[in-house]
């Protein structure tokens, strides 16, 4: 209770799993074994973690740890269990966690640094639309939120460089030139430049929250390339487009919608939130 109390006064709340485990471990070692864990620094600090690990291995065969995805990898994609686990870890850690770790801070930064009353407009939209429970589907009814997400991806593509080796000879065209590309040549695309093309995007260097709204705005989606392909395209086994291209957008939209249902306003700068005003 001392630990919990001091954490509450320091951080406003305390999670209780660890203090409870520390307490019950000490109590049981004393009462069951007749030994005092504090006589060994190692046991008193991490004895309960040692028991957690030991226990986990004992009960692993009986505990559900969400192996359905691994089963699908084996049954539908012909992978063995080890390959499935490696692929899942790579997608989880690199593609998904890595991608969002770069993207979400730039999204928050765009929201808190706006000076045009954007938060007020978003607040209105997310409270009027999308029903009582937010979901991947309900945020599709929030055009401003989606446009803000697209505009952030346009100005700050989280993975700006793409490489690919030509599979055949072909001609690569830009607005005013044609380049002969030979099979085997290494190509590099720089999204940051592509998505600031003044021939496509009006005032390409400015953040325009509603840029992708309405019919004219949605035509720009075929020039939004953050996923290594146009937002109007689809990932296939041969094009290397982000497999989660739609879920990335919807997840970010959910995050924005949730934040502005919870808060009336969020104040901050490019790295910190300095104040939040709870929804009244
Ligand atoms: C903000 C988050 C994300 C960003 C910015 C992002 C961006 C990208 C980009 C740029 C590529 C192409 C890489 C290249 O070939 O050079 C890519 C590929 C890929 N992404 Fe994402 N991604 C994100 C989240 C996710 C998530 C959540 C998943 C899966 C759950 C995912 C799965 C994949 C996979 C499997 C590929 C490889 C596709 C292939 O080579 O055929 N990504 N992603």
Automatic annotation (TrEMBL):
Swiss-Prot/TrEMBL keywords: Heme, Iron, Membrane, Metal-binding, Transmembrane, Transmembrane helix
Record's keyword annotation contains Magnesium: no
GO annotation terms (biological process): sterol metabolic process
Binding site for heme: 242
Annotated TM spans: 88-112
Pfam families associated with the record: p450 (PF00067)
A GO molecular-function annotation: iron ion binding
The organism's place on the tree of life at top rank: Eukaryota
Cofactor: heme
Coiled coil residues, start to end: none
Family of this protein: Belongs to the cytochrome P450 family.
Protein name per the record: Cytochrome P450
